[in-house]
Design a protein that fits this description.
homodimer, 125 residues, Jelly Rolls, four-stranded antiparallel β-sheet, 8 strands, 29% helix, globular
């Protein structure tokens, strides 16, 4: 996402989205956890990991855990901070508020959702 | 979608989304067509068909072809009017305008996207 245009973090602050900090190796969530929010990396780096394999590095402006917005199923990968990291928690009401302020954000998250669902298919298939 | 709450079609009229009418058996698009818009059924019924199998019936308030908003790939199924049908064309700028007016719409389309991508997986896998 951050390749296209820098995300305006002030939207998240305006809607009061909470921040969380993690040290290197700390988990944001584990595979199979239930969750009701996605996350945006504010600083640092989060690795998405399944079966010990790093699927993706998510850096500032990138989001992960977006499936939880549409689905109450378990997390399909673990999310582990790779360095000192700050994330913003985006639950459903926050997502609605952000999309109301920046509708393009919806298309970005949809694109990410499609990419990740297709990658899961390849792994399964 | 229409099971949850009726879609407010006036949003689409306000943003000037074009309408198209089809007779029974007429195609909205065929599998492998390229496209840059999704569609919402205003009245009538559209069948999504692949390899001669009807995957889904889409009725008033339902949308289809949503992958085209995030992806320039070919259509993954044909969309054929099953009866006299009117659809509204929702291209990217229209989607952005609709989501700006009704941010919940983004979550609905994301849910649909996930459902359909997962169904494709099952067929492929």
């Amino acid at each position: 996402m951050s390749d296209e245009q820098p995300f305006d973090f002030s939207i998240l602050d305006r809607v009061g989205a909470p921040h969380r900090r993690y040290g290197p190796g700390e988990k944001v969530f584990l595979e199979e956890d239930t969750g009701n929010a996605m996350y945006m990396v504010r600083s640092g780096r989060v690795d998405l990991i399944t079966y010990g394999i790093i699927l993706e590095n998510v850096r500032s402006g990138g989001v992960f855990g977006e499936m939880a917005l549409i689905d109450d199923g378990p997390r399909s990968a673990a999310a582990i901070a790779a360095e000192p990291t700050e994330v913003v928690v985006i639950d459903k009401p926050t997502f609605i508020a952000v999309v109301g302020a920046d509708p393009q954000f919806a298309l970005k998250v949809m694109g990410l959702l499609a990419t990740r669902l297709r990658r899961m298919n390849k792994q399964v298939g």
